[in-house]
Amino acid sequence: MMGLLAEALSGLSAKLAPTFAEAGLAEIDFETLIRLGRSPRHSLRMSDLAAQTCMSTSGVTRVVDRLERDGLVARRTCATDRRALYAELTEAGMRRLEEVLPKHLDDIETWFTGVLTDEQRAALVDTLRIVRDVVRPCATAGATVPQQLARSHRVTG
């Protein structure tokens, strides 16, 4: 079963990669943007972003550095705790996310959910949430889906 899971994951990643490349993003860049986009005020503490993406603090710093250089993310300090840093999606970052998200969702439909029946899709979503909550309990900490983004792009947690 582990081999099958690895094959499905690597195959799906390969099918999704061209959309990210066309948008000038690495997969982790997109994951960072989507997590910020669905978070309150489009912002997360750097430590929460690291936990949600399973990156080290130095890893998330490198990703945010790159996204900040591209004008997609900005850093800001916490008003009540100067030690805390936040990564915040900029307007340009939100535009980039809104540009790539429809194509990404089409890719997901084409290569993943669209090959399943409604019953299989519902069972898969339930199963993935169970597994995610066990292996990555921090994956959704503090995240919400803005209603406009959810309605226009079918985003679910």
Outline the structure in words.
The protein is mainly α and 157 residues long. The chain has a single domain, classed as Winged helix-like DNA-binding domain superfamily/Winged helix DNA-binding domain (Arc Repressor Mutant, subunit A, Orthogonal Bundle), CATH 1.10.10. The chain is built from seven helices and three strands. Helix 1 (2-22) crosses helix 5 (91-111). The two termini are 25 Å apart. The model is unreliable at 145-157 (pLDDT under 50).
User: How does the overall form come out from the CA principal axes?
Assistant: globular
Radius of gyration: 16 Å
Treating each run of at least 4 consecutive H or I residues as one helix, how many helices?
Answer: 7
- Supply the CATH class: Mainly Alpha
CATH topology: Arc Repressor Mutant, subunit A
Instruction: Return the CATH architecture.
Output: Orthogonal Bundle
Q: How much helix is in the residues?
A: 55-70%
Low-confidence stretches: 145-157
Q: Find the count of extended strands (DSSP E, 2+ residues).
A: 3
- Tell me the span between the first and last alpha carbons: 25 Å
Strand count, sense and barrel status of the largest sheet are:
3 strands, antiparallel
Within the largest sheet, what's the order of strands? 1-3-2
Q: Please, how many domains? A: 1
- Fraction of residues in β-strands: 5-15%
- Class computed from helices, strands and strand pairing: mainly alpha
Q: Could you give the order of the helices and strands?
A: HHEHHEEHHH
Q: What's the CATH superfamily, by name?
A: Winged helix-like DNA-binding domain superfamily/Winged helix DNA-binding domain
Average pLDDT score: 86
